[in-house]
Amino acid sequence: MFTGSLVAIVTPFKSGKVDEKAFGDLIEWQIASGTNGIVPCGTTGESATLSHEEHHRVVKLTVEVVRGRIPVIAGAGSNSTAEAISLTKHAKEAGADGALLITPYYNRPTQEGLYRHYKAIAEAVDLPQVLYNIPGRTGVNMLPATVARLCGMKNIVGIKEGSGSVQQASDIVMHCRERLTVLAGDDSLTLPMMAVGAKGVITVAANLVPSEMAKLVSTFLSGHLEESRGIHFRLSPLFAALFYETNPIPVKEALGLMGKMTPELRLPLCPMGTETKAQLTGVLKDLNLV
Fold it and tell me: GO terms for CC (predicted)?
């Protein structure tokens, strides 16, 4: 259902508030550049420091700006199942096409707890749902066997697999086949994961190079492997640079250098250090982005 290059879009701030004008402009640029979907209120969108009111507004604004031209998959996860259900219900009411649901963080549920969490959301809200596994952020790894238990449920249509393991992605594809769409959760692993059956990526890099990320995916899926591989190698330094410091610090800094928005963050995230900013700027210059 959701394939291609789907951008995990940043949330621009200005003087402590969501910068709706900059946000709308970013969405329009993404659509014009061939991005296949917008994912607001994820990790890259600083969902952890958005109030519920802001979270709801950002999702609604995304839907309003997109106007049905491409899918909107709203971040709606939480370490509280009840809260995740509430956010997913709001995503549906706002007109989103789907919800992205991160594994519960900090409380580190068992595999049975993960299964029950996602089952409860799928049964509570009739909206396509994409699981999101990123153990480096959450402290828990959702195993392929657990994903296999979930992938037959009506509303569970995909997974953003961010474990960093191509083998784990391969196991999920093998277990779930056509019942679940696997999307890469790491830009650098988009190409390797598509080689084992993934259908795209939920990407940080597309915030800066939307047309290139869309082409990386589309050329591979259309059988033009060498072209896709060439894009992968050209963008590899950028993939690394976007994690010189905690995401989304570098991508917001880069968008600021590109003149797309004010690179404002919310504590406890803070501006890039001088050395890493200089390194990031060098990568952007090599790609003619600044």
Answer: cytosol
User: Do 21 and 219 meet the contact criterion of CB atoms below 8 Å apart?
Assistant: no
Q: Is 214 left (phi over 0), alpha (psi -120 to 50) or beta?
A: alpha
Cα torsion 144, 164, 255, 213: sign: negative
Q: Are 56 and 94 in contact (CB under 8 A)?
A: yes
Domains in the chain: ranges and CATH: 4-223 (3.20.20.70)
Task: Quote the pTM value.
Answer: 0.95
Digit-coded pLDDT (tens) for 112-165? 999 999 999 999 999 999 999 999 999 999 999 999 999 989 999 999 999 999
Contact 111, 143 (CB under 8 A): yes
Cis peptide, bond prior to residue 192, ω within 30 of zero: no
**How far apart, in Å, do the first and last CA atoms of the chain sit?**
35
* Four-CA torsion 6, 227, 172, 118, nearest 10 degrees: 0
Active site residue 160: yes
Q: Cβ neighbours of residue 6 under 8 Å, at least 6 residues apart?
A: 35, 36, 37, 38, 39, 71, 73, 183, 200, 201, 202, 203, 206
Catalytic residue selected from 60, 118, 132, 260 = 132
Known binding residues for pyruvate are 44, 202
Question: Which H or E run contains 227?
Answer: helix 225-241
Q: How far is CA 268 from the centre of its chain?
A: 21
- Is 132 a known active-site residue? yes
Catalytic residue among 60, 160, 260, 277: 160
Q: Which residues in 199-209 are b (16+ Cβ under 10 Å) and which e?
A: bbbbbbbbbbb
